[in-house]
Write a structure and sequence with these properties.
Number of helices: 7
Strand content: 15-25%
Distance between the termini: 15 Å
Strand order of the largest sheet: 2-1-3-6-7
Largest sheet: 5 strands, parallel
Number of strands: 7
Radius of gyration: 18 Å
Shape: globular
Length: 203
């Protein structure tokens, strides 16, 4: 079994999502000791945002791609191959400005490749990345899951469920710690709740 561990927080050792992904991976390994782990740090080693050179080879055929286009295509292929090879993907997804970090979005954009993660049939788009488990360590300074207003502003967990579902992943598990910036007691309660989620997510 292969596990891909992905962090995206820009806060380094101060990051709650990094703390939780490390704990998720450790917990997973206790129950699945035959698992091999590969690590991807999207903040320490950011991926170029998706641009014209990255999409050129995937679009209309051209006789001779440029070196920049070849390099961008090679990066996209490396990342999507790494994703497709993993059985389990553990993702640290902090809540930035109502959504996910741009570093994480850049990675996801590289995965969304026709004939790799998705294909189009007469019934519409179909995901090709089936049979995987995605565990999201979701961290938030405020509380968004407990009210309709908060849920309406949340484009983090909801986005990740939709996009990985689009890729064909039906098993998306959330380990959530929210209210982390609301004081020491709410923070402790949030981390405790996340660890309870973790027990279920890694079973």
């Amino acid at each position: 079994m292969k596990l891909l561990h992905v962090d995206s927080s820009i806060l380094g050792t101060h990051s709650a999502s990094r703390q939780l992904t490390a704990e998720v991976v450790d917990q997973w390994l206790k129950g699945h000791p035959d698992t091999t782990v590969e690590y991807l740090d999207l903040a320490a080693n950011p991926i170029n945002h998706f641009g014209a050179d990255a999409i050129a080879i995937k679009g209309a055929a051209q006789p001779e791609p440029t070196e920049a286009q070849r390099a961008e295509n090679a990066l996209s292929e490396k990342l999507v191959s790494q994703f497709l090879a993993a059985d389990v993907i553990v993702i640290g997804a902090p809540f930035y400005n109502f959504s996910i970090p741009t570093q994480l979005k850049a990675w996801i954009d590289r995965l969304a490749q026709p004939c790799r993660a998705i294909t189009t049939t007469e019934k519409g788009p179909t995901g090709l990345a089936t049979g995987k488990t995605v565990i999201v360590a979701s961290t938030r300074g405020g509380a968004y899951s407990t009210s309709e207003g908060g849920q309406a502003m949340e484009h983090q967990e909801s986005y990740l469920k939709v996009v990985f579902g689009f890729f064909g992943v039906t098993d998306v598990r959330i380990v959530r710690a929210e209210g982390l910036a609301m004081g020491e007691a709410p923070k402790a309660a949030a981390l405790s709740a996340a660890r309870a989620d973790m027990e279920l997510a890694t079973a």
